Amino acid sequence: MLDLNSNQLSGPIPPRIVRATTYKHFVKSCHVLVGDGNNIRTLREVRVVFGLPAATSMECLEVLDEESHVLSFQIVGGEHRLTN
């Protein structure tokens, strides 16, 4: 999980996870595929900037707790150029 109270990020949780560019500076664009962007199980496609070892990332929102400033998502697919 990513704690938004840590030194890594500042400010409130974006009201919709579709606004990934607010807290992920390497994001080129973000589109919600399933859900409304405000609730768990929302699925989004994130396109990242050129030069990273990925082109797209499919992410599913697992936790959104605005009171505790916690946001968690799972990467469920996408076009990655990473090897194990």
TrEMBL record:
Organism of origin: Colocasia esculenta
InterPro entries tied to this protein: START-like_dom_sf
Name of this protein:
Uncharacterized protein
